[in-house]
Structure formats: structure tokens, C-alpha cells
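Hi everyone, sorry if this is the wrong subforum. Our group has a chain we'd like a structural model of before ordering constructs, and none of us has done structure prediction before. Sequence below.
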Amino acid sequence: MSKTTEAVNVNSKQTKNLYGELSEHEQALQLPIFKRCLERSGMSADSFVEALTQTSLSSLLAWTQSDLERLLLAAEALGLNPAGREIFLVPSQGLLGPPTLVVGVDGWSRIINTHQQFAGMRFEESTELVDGVPSWIECTMFRWDRHVATSVKEYLVEVRGNSAAWLTHPRRMLRHKAMIQCARLAFGLVGVCDSDEADTSVLADRQDELNGMRGSRTSEFPMPKHQIGPLGSMAVKRALVAGPYNNQFDK
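Answer:
Right subforum, don't worry. Here is the predicted structure as C-alpha cells:
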């Protein structure tokens, strides 16, 4: 027996010890959505899981199998790559709420350009400047099946964020905001948000939670046990194999 074969057999035995009678990915690969996304990616199971933890799940400290399935289902419905930087999950509603689905700029661009009815878009910007940036940018999108185009105008004073991207590339960010909001209306996209909206929601939710917790001990609001577990690709594998409420997460 070669050393490579021996190593594979050892890993299989270790996996069996960790997960009882289940081999690595044996149950994970039975999830229809996981199988479909894995097949579309063209990657090995290990590489696909590793990519998930480094991109779409990297912002989370804790997650459940339902979170993973929701991510993969949304990616499939929108035609996005969950192992890339097109769609991801971020914490929301303080510490206890489910993660928020966020579509990045690359994801919005893919959604728009791959839509069968997309017939082009154009941008117009204000000649009035605020700190050297147009006070507004308007995006207009055209569809083959509609006679009237959809136009959305986003104002800098309303949407300007505090991230590094807003500080270094404010015109680009304002154009992205106009494009995203126009796409929402033109193609009826719901249930997802962009990074700025997610950040605003998280801050508001956490402030509300802190206000409600004043005068109370933090220990009265413990993290649900099924959401506490190790991080990294092995954690994703365990969640996919064992499910979100398996006692292994509590050990």
C-alpha cells in the first residue's frame, strides 16, 4: 500500500471517529442544493468548502446548517457563485438574529447582465458638486419586454457611507448605489441588500439590543448553543454532515 493510500485511509478513520458512522462529506453530498452548487463550481468538495469559509461565510462567528442552505439556495436562484465574492452572509439583528444575505457589486453586475430581458443601462450625474462629488447620479435601465425604461436617482447626502471605499472612490460608490436600486425596481429583486444597507441594519439592530439590555446582565441573553462552534472549513463540513442542532457543537 502506498503512503498516499495510507494517508487517505487514516483520514477516513479519523473522520469516522469524529462523526460516528459518517464518512467525510457523505451526508453533506446528499443535500440537493449542496450537490448542485458543487457541480456548478467544478471544484472538489474540500476546495469548495474551503472557498465558502474564506468568502461567503468569512464574516460570521457562528452559523447553522440552515444558514448555509439559505446562502446556497439564494445563490442558485440569483445565478451567483457562493464560493466567490458575489454573495455572502453577514451578522444581523444584534447577536441572536439570523445572518443577512448581502450581494456584492460583482454579484449585482452579474444579475443584471445575465438577465434575459436586460437591454442596457446608462448613467447621468449632476453638475452640482458636493465635496467634489456629483450631488446625485441617475441610473436608467432598459428591458426588451418594456416600453418605458426604469430610472432611479440616488443623492449623495442620503447614501454616503463611512467605509474606506466611500472615502477613496465616492463617485464609483454613488454610481453603484444608483445601479443597485435601479436593478431592484427593473427586475423585482427582493430579499437581499448591499453592503452599506447591511452595515446600517446591523448598527441599528445592535443599538436597539443594547438599549433593551441596559440594566440587565449580559448573561441573561446567552448565545444559542447550536450557534456556537469551531470556525473554519472543518466547521462547515461538520454543519453540513451533522446538521445545525447536533450535540457535537456543544462539546
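For your construct planning: DSSP finds ten helices and seven strands in the chain. The first strand starts at residue 87 and ends at 90.
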